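Model it.
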Amino acid sequence: MNNAVIIDVSKFYEQTETAKLSLLNEYVQKAKELAGEGNEIVLTGAAPVWLYLKIAHVLHGKARKLTYRSPVTGDVVIFDHSPD
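Modeled.
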């Protein structure tokens, strides 16, 4: 996972300190822009589960591989559509 795109979800709502459901579309758009097309993506950072779930759903079909990274769990592969 050397060239994976790392997305720190907590950075999406730094200004408000708390993720806002009313800004969900904004967060999703940021994630899509950062992810690009066909990349390996690592999601990390403190964020509510609803935000992680929505981003994972949106990136399915855009990302080749999606991993969740946490200091507690380490890396957890959410999906992997890599051909190898």
